[in-house]
Please model this.
Amino acid sequence: MPLFLPHKKPGPIKPTPNPYPSRFQRWRQSVWLTFIFILLLGGAVRFYKPLYDPLEQILFEKVVFLQKSFLHPFYQTRILLQSAQQLVYLKEKHARLVLINEDLKKELQALKPLSHENKVLKQLLNIPVQDGLKYRTVRVLASPYDGLHRFFLIEGGEKDGVIKDQAVVVEEGIVGRIEKVGKYLARVLLITDLNSRIPVMTTSSKQKAILSGNGSFLSTLVYVNDISKLQVGEKVVTSGLGGIFPAGFPVGVIDSFDHGKVKVRLYVPFQDIEWVQILNLRPQEFHREVSSALEDK
Amino acid sequence: MKLVPNFLKVLPLLSLFSIMMIGSSWHIAGFPLMPTLLLIPVYYWLVYHPSWLPQEGLFVIGLVYDVLMGHALGVSSILLMGSTIVGRYSRSSLRPDKFLLIWLGFVFFSGGYLLLYALCFSGGIELFVSWIFGVILYPLVVLFLSHLHLWIQSHV
Model:
């Protein structure tokens, strides 16, 4: 069988069933008229906000749910393949982990007195101790990408208590923040996205700045207090300003200076992430409190 | 009731929908396959059977694409619907048995589409790489689509 066949239907040409179509059918067949009609209708909806916002929300929920269904077989196949691969290396990994565990136990023993000392010193200095952050672990469903926006679709929505602007992290550091919430699913705007801006600071020179995403895995530091104090290899962490990301979370390391731009290599391996943690913070309450405090002044 | 033939005529739109849903998360070396991957079935059906690709269907596909990619709703709909008009006028200059000519047509079609797309959403090098990927993958996707086309034609 040839690779590409001409698409010709064999047999005699049949007569048209309706040689005199109605006016509606004639309009329907005119691409220009249909185009203009849909354009006018769509334009009216687009600029009528009370109709557009709920429509966008409904579409978001339905489309993401549909995509989840479409990707399910692929996801299960990937898990199966990964499980098979993991089984092969399990024995070797176990032996290595036993050794690491022994080392960690020794380190823990050494750290216990330091932890106690730290607690006592904090009490003496009267520093308020922050409670341990609570978080919810959710699965990453998909990461649709067309070269413009970088985000994750995650399996957690309003029903699970996920709210807009909550911070999303992994073990290695900050991933992004919740941008849109559906009933069962949500969208995470990654820190590499063009629209992402997060307040950060450097660990050695203590320079505060804004980390700006640019679509690549090398983000840029902008609004740096004193750029001359920064050094290549310096660590970048969240500053805690803005109320979305808690202070001190690892972000990345200064990679290079390119024509006055400070490039930061991010810690998080975005392409390998399967699970993320949503921090149980209430950024919108924080914003409300800040705005009310400003109003009082 | 012509339920089955009518359903078969929806299959081209469903092929578009499936490619969009599955391909939206695919990357090669960090570069996306979208939106050029979506353009392959659009172009194929526009060239071989435009009546199976109604503008209303493309409007919905565009909306779904915008939701999936986090764009403002409607921009992709307009671009896709506009491409049907381009397809309507340019298909007369293409011959269905000249595969290379049609492939070349796709290069220009997708290039023009991506240029408008980049202007609308201020895209960069990623879109260019996506275009290259799409052009390379074109024969592979068309192989699947041509078999689907023949199968639908033999049943409708």
Helices of chain B lie at 3-23, 36-48, 55-69, 75-90, 99-121, 125-155. The longest helix of chain B spans residues 125-155.
